[in-house]
Amino acid sequence: MTPDQAIQFLVDTVGFERANAEGEVRRSFSGAYSPLYQVAYMIGGLELRAFARGAGRLPSHDRA
Length: 64
Description:
By secondary structure, the protein is an all-alpha fold. 70% of the residues lie in helices and 0% in strands.
């Protein structure tokens, strides 16, 4: 997938505004961030969603 295709995908499929899509793709393709950056960002978002759904606490903070 080219950067232009990725931008168009984010605009058409995800609903990003073009400027936001361009920024996300630029960060991903430029190599300025580690490839794990996007994965870590998504995991954090999933944890916040779980918290918002009433889990009561963030999963990474569970202490047994």
